[in-house]
Amino acid sequence: MIYDIFPFVFYISCLVGLWFIFGKAGIARWKALIPIYHFIPWVQLCGKKWVWYLYLLIPVLNIFTFLLLVVETAKVFRRNNFWEQLAAVIFPWAYLMVVGLTKWEWHDPKIDPPAKVTEGRDWAEAIAFAVVAALVIRGNVVEFYNIPSSSMEKSLMTGDYLWVSKLAYGPRTVMTPLSVPFVHNTLPGTQGQKESFSRLISLPYHRYPGLGKVERFDAIVFN
């Protein structure tokens, strides 16, 4: 039940946050309630160029762009702490609500540009952002797989790499969140003997609706 409610909470929280953020920036609040269109004033209040609109239209890249917009929102409200910006990437829906409901003031980036950070901080932000965004995309949108067996060798060969869409039949929610990132069921170098995840926390199975249904002769990746 909670899995079905979460997308709704995520979306509504973002809209509420943008409603108050737009008000602080002197933008008509009703613009926050119009899907897709609300990205135009959002990009503008962050001081970004029109090309960002195109980024938001490109699948997969739009996930990175959305998360980066939340970080840029933190910057124009002078929230420059590294850990706070990391929280903005991990919990964007909640962070937009916090920005909108607090007394933090918006600073026009054209008049008062965000403070510059050190090169080390810049690299740390880039790595942290890339890891979080990649995990979101890998877990819910697309992922690369290596064919481990010869069961399909008249069509697909052992060792072939596949780019698999998780949206086709619906992404499955994480069941063992305590795991080594960017690896599959077993740890590299262990000859398949050591699991890459812990069963200390085990969540129930749930799959979101997909774009289609499984048809005969479809090539499917499964556990």
Note the main attributes of this structure.
223 residues, mainly alpha, 7 helices, elongated
Describe this structure in words.
The structure is a single chain. The protein is mostly helical and 223 residues long. It is 41% helix and 4% strand. It has seven helices and two strands; from the N terminus they run αααααααββ. The protein has a two-stranded antiparallel sheet with strand order 1-2.
Helix-strand layout with pairing:
Blueprint: H1 2-24, H2 39-45, H3 51-55, H4 61-76, H5 82-90, H6 92-101, H7 119-140, E1 142-146, E2 161-165
Antiparallel strand pairs: 1-2
- Assembly type of the chains comes to single chain
Structure classification: mainly alpha
Shape: elongated
C-alpha termini separation? 24 Å
Helix content: 40-55%
Please sum up the structure shown.
With 223 residues, the chain is mostly helical.
